[in-house]
């Protein structure tokens, strides 16, 4: 049960629950009018009455993965200072041999369903994101939602990759904390990737160990047939081996859940980096504007005093083709002064913008850090608990399997 | 070493040593005496296991001083073997202390063989000699020659593929030592084989090679005669009980072979799993270095996985050292038993052929010639020896496999317990609330 506050058109606060309860295979025609198969997910929203805690289904609609992607891309553009929760992976990665990499595989679909639900819950529990209109419509307006999102024109507002890359290389004075954060997110991404890769190999090997034990089952059974006193003991041992070998499937399924929790934070690292990039962009923008302003001021000064310290085309052509008239000079000075005034205004607002961005972004980053520490600790605890329960079960199984031998006494 | 052939002790069925003529009583009589067992009081004392200090009777021969250390270790050996419950033990043999010898021609390992016995066949109560594998091989061959109607325990494999297995590694030497110790103990437990001269020589001679050269050919009556049985007789029907044994051994060896293959495969998979685990744990450590509040928990998980890895390594080592060798030994045992069965078939076939030949000859009526009677004797003795040994073997097999399978389960349980402990111990660490920074 997840409670959150949501604002509707009329700004009334309500407590709601969100769940992605079902997944369904669909066929349809895509943009190029070709047949395609995809999975649709049922999103159910329930409002909870304060008084009796009963929940009433208020909305239910079907969405596919690409619509979730659209929502997220929108959020990224409109909330660049927020660490936007990530979506579950588009394609299955870090698989071990028994795990399917097929997007249509029911286990993959199931894990994706859980991941999408988790995404919606993260957004809904974010103090700022939960108030977004488009998000609200995503949950409530089945038809036309895509058009509504596109109408916001967010794609145009998005920063181009090239622009962002340029800023990263050329920015001179980014906030140190963001540099460190970017470095951290790079390292985090690297280490979690490594961890997931090795974990998948570990799972693979463990699977092999358990399954080979299963071969004992049959041979012990066959052996028991030729033994008199030892027969029962061998049968019991053989049966236990079969049970042991079969138990690995559930064990590894549980572990996949742990892997999914790690994956979420792997993708969160990218979201962190996005915020850092935005900071670099705004900072670079600011620096460029300051540079331009300084250049204009200099130009103005030179024109006024008559000294030419800086190279300018106008200055060169003037030298080559003759001096300009004092009137012309006056006009130019005036224009520059106008531009300088404008520029100063812009710089002021950009500065403000920049500081606001840093303040807001850092607040969300702190919030994110707390969330991360809490979630990962919980994930590690549940992983440990999983291991403990597995050890107990398997150890007990071995004990049970051999109990006949133990109790049979000296000569069985 | 007392001369003369061993007393013709009844070898049919597992008989308690008490029923046999006391080796130290009436040393003048060398004939088979049944039932006369009134040992002197002080000898009786020596046989009660309750005594802390075992008195080794000297019966006229100078005895070495029985130190307290040796008595208590003797007691240990007594307690280990519960197969001879209620039976008296007067011979104890141990294989230990492997040593490497480097010579110009070759390098090899010798083992110390310690023997303690009150038997009259031994001049001294205690012996300590050094033997190498080929000496054991010699002994086994001699036993097979001289006691062909009995099941001789197997030796660990003679040849090892050089380069694949390190013949001088601690693990290999220890595995071999255990197998050789078992080999001698099985002979020691056998009421007939333990009195064999070659065994005695093996345990006592200072220079075994000299004895080998002399070619001691002290064969029992039965042994000698069986040795000269020519092959080539076709057996018509194996008696039911021996046919059953043969079939049992075939299936048994087959199943053991399968189990051996599976066990090897499991060990291989476990080792590969271990390799991955050893990479997995440290990644948590790397991560821990990036974090602040999560640093300790992550480091804890890393250490935990490290502990599990170590526990797994111990498990695979145990499986390799304790489980596989016993399987192999019983496969070898089955093989040698099958060849003894075949020899028995030969003896029966010879007897039947000779009998048939007599039946065809019209002149010699109902009187059965002496040599046919001798054949019948041989066959019946062989059958009796073999039956007795089979029963003994079945008992030992049950004991050994019960111990083996329970041991395997126990080792696995211990592994899971170690892992359990490791994970349980980090739960409090993970749940710890970090102080506000």
TrEMBL record, chain B:
Residues 89-210 form the PX domain. This is Sorting nexin-30. Gene3D superfamilies: Arfaptin homology (AH) domain/BAR domain, Phox-like domain. Its main location: membrane. It is a peripheral membrane protein. Heterodimer; heterodimerizes with SNX4. It is found in: Early endosome membrane. Residues 1-73 are annotated as: Disordered. It holds the Pfam family PX. The lineage of its organism: Eukaryota, Metazoa, Chordata, Craniata, Vertebrata. Keywords: Protein transport, Transport. Belongs to the sorting nexin family. Residues 59-73 have a biased composition (Low complexity).
């Amino acid at each position: 049960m997840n409670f959150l506050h949501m604002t509707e058109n009329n700004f009334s606060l309500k407590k709601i629950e969100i769940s992605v309860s079902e997944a369904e295979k669909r066929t349809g025609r895509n943009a190029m009018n070709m047949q395609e198969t995809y999975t649709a997910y049922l999103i159910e929203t329930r409002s909870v009455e304060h008084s009796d805690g009963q929940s009433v289904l208020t909305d239910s609609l079907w969405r596919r993965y690409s619509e979730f992607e659209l929502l997220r891309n929108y959020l990224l553009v409109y909330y660049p200072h927020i660490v936007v929760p990530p979506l579950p992976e588009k394609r299955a990665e870090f698989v071990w041999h028994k795990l399917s990499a097929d997007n249509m595989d029911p286990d993959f679909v199931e894990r994706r369903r859980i991941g999408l639900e988790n995404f919606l819950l993260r957004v809904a529990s974010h103090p700022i994101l939960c108030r977004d209109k488009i998000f609200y419509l995503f949950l409530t307006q089945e038809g036309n939602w895509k058009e509504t999102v596109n109408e916001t024109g967010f794609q145009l507002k998005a920063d181009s990759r090239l622009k962002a890359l340029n800023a990263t290389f050329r920015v001179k004075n980014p906030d140190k904390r963001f540099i460190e954060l970017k470095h951290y997110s790079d390292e985090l991404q690297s280490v979690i990737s490594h961890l997931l890769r090795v974990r998948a190999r570990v799972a693979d090997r463990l699977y092999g160990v358990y399954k080979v034990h299963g071969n004992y089952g049959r041979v012990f059974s066959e052996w028991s047939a030729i033994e008199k006193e030892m027969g029962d003991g061998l049968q019991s041992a053989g049966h236990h081996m079969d049970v042991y070998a079969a138990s690995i499937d559930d064990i590894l399924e549980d572990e996949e859940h742990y892997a999914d929790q790690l994956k979420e934070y792997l993708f969160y690292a990218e979201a962190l980096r996005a915020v850092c990039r935005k900071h670099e962009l705004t900072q670079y923008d600011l620096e460029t504007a300051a540079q331009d302003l300084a250049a204009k001021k200099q130009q103005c000064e030179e024109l006024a005093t008559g000294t030419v310290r800086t190279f300018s085309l106008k200055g060169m052509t003037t030298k080559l083709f003759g001096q300009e008239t004092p009137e012309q000079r006056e006009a130019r000075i005036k224009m520059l002064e106008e531009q300088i005034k404008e520029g100063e205004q812009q710089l002021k607002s950009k500065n403000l913008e920049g500081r606001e961005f840093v303040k807001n972004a850092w607040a969300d980053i702190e919030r994110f850090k707390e969330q991360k520490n809490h979630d990962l600790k919980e994930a590690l605890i549940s992983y440990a608990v999983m291991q403990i329960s597995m050890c107990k079960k398997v150890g007990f199984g071995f004990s049970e399997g051999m109990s006949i031998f133990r109790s049979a006494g000296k000569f069985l | 070493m007392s001369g003369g052939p061993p007393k013709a002790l009844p070898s049919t069925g597992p008989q308690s040593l008490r029923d046999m003529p006391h080796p130290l009583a009436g040393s003048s009589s060398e004939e088979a005496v049944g039932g006369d067992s009134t040992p002197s009081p002080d000898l009786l004392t020596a046989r009660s296991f309750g005594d802390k200090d075992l008195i080794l009777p000297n019966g006229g021969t100078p005895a070495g001083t029985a130190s307290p250390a040796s008595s208590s270790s003797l007691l240990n050996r007594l307690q280990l073997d519960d197969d001879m419950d209620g039976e008296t033990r007067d011979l104890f043999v141990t294989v230990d202390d492997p040593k490497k010898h480097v010579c110009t021609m070759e390098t090899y390992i010798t083992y110390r063989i310690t023997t303690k016995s009150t038997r009259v066949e031994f001049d001294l109560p205690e012996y300590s000699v050094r033997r190498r594998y080929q000496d054991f091989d010699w002994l086994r061959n001699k036993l097979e020659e001289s006691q062909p109607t009995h099941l001789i325990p197997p030796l660990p494999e003679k040849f090892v593929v050089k380069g694949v297995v390190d013949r001088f590694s601690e693990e290999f030497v220890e595995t071999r030592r255990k197998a050789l110790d078992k080999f001698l103990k099985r002979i020691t437990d056998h009421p007939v084989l333990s009195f064999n001269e070659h065994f005695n020589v093996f345990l006592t001679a200072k220079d075994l090679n000299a004895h080998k050269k002399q070619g001691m050919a002290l064969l029992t009556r039965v042994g000698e005669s069986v040795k000269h049985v020519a092959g080539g007789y076709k057996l018509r029907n194996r008696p039911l009980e021996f046919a059953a044994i043969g079939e049992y051994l075939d299936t048994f060896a087959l199943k053991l072979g399968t189990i051996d293959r599976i066990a090897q495969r499991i060990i291989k998979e476990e080792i590969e799993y271990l390799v991955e685990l050893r990479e997995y744990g440290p990644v948590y450590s790397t991560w821990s270095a990036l974090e602040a509040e999560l640093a300790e928990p992550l480091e804890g998980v890393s250490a935990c996985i490290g502990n599990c890895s170590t526990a797994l390594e111990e498990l695979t080592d145990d499986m390799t050292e304790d489980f596989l060798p016993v399987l192999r030994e019983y496969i070898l045992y089955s093989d040698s038993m099958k060849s003894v069965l075949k020899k028995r078939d030969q003896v029966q076939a010879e007897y039947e052929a000779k009998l048939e030949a007599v039946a065809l000859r019209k002149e010699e009526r109902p009187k059965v010639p002496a040599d046919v009677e001798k054949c019948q004797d041989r066959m019946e003795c062989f059958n009796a020896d073999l039956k007795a040994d089979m029963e003994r073997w079945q008992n030992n097999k049950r004991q050994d496999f019960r111990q083996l399978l329970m041991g395997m389960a126990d080792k696995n349980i211990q592994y899971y317990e170690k892992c359990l402990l490791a994970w349980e111990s980090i739960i409090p660490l993970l749940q710890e609330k970090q102080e506000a920074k």
